Amino acid sequence: xxxxxxxxxxxxxxxxxxxxxxxxxxxxxxxxxxxxxxxxxxxxxxxxxxxxxxxxxxxxxxxxxxxxxxxxxxxxxxxxxxxxxxxxxxxxxxxxxxxxxxxxxxxxxxxxxxxxxxxxxxxxxxxxxxxxxxxxxxxxxxxxxxxxxxxxxxxxxxxxxxxxxxxxxxxxxxxxxxxxxxxxxxxxxxxxxxxxxxxxxxxxxxxxxxxxxxxxxxxxxxxxxxxxxxxxxxxxxxxxxxxxxxxxxxxxxxxxx
Length: 257
Fold this sequence. Notes:
Elements: H1 17-21, E1 37-43, E2 49-55, H2 68-79, E3 88-92, H3 98-105, E4 111-114, H4 119-131, H5 142-145, E5 150-151, H6 159-169, E6 172-178, H7 187-197, E7 198-207, H8 216-225, E8 228-230, E9 248-253
Parallel strand pairs: 3-4, 3-6, 4-5, 6-7
Antiparallel strand pairs: 1-2, 7-9, 8-9
């Protein structure tokens, strides 16, 4: 491992590693073979291209592939670039890092922290940042990374991890999370993290394009428990989402009475 990352894998959110390894298919297995990867090019307009290396098959680690939610979020951000411009942005469960890279390259965010918890995913995430010609700050060095334009520190969700993270990187203006929860159990630490790291007036932008895996009603209920509300008036859909399946939720902190 590099950059001082902890030996944490995505399956740890379930409990013990043994529980996962007993399953017939290990969706968290990651391949190091060169032919397991492909590079996808995203044309985001204005002659800007973002290159993303991902695994070809979705049956690998969930963080090693580009999922629908990140593409939906990028379309939203393109139409709402003012949300990102000159803001401090944090992407949670970033996987391949598409959204964070779009924020940095296309929409001139003040700073971007592209994070994941899985240390194997972090290797590919940092690779993608450098693939796009961006200087990557040393996430272990707070004196350099705190003021950097872009950094990829490891962030394991949960209150205590978030408090430590906030000491080094401060509060954020915008938090982004897409297709990074697939069991209700993982939603609690997600919102714990957002609660600790988001500015009082900040926005938490969220997409869950697989609600049959983690029901939207469960997510909204847990969000409310942590003081986050999302108005139906602000739900946003792409023009191609005719069945209204993949909205962008704009969460804000509930106003104190």
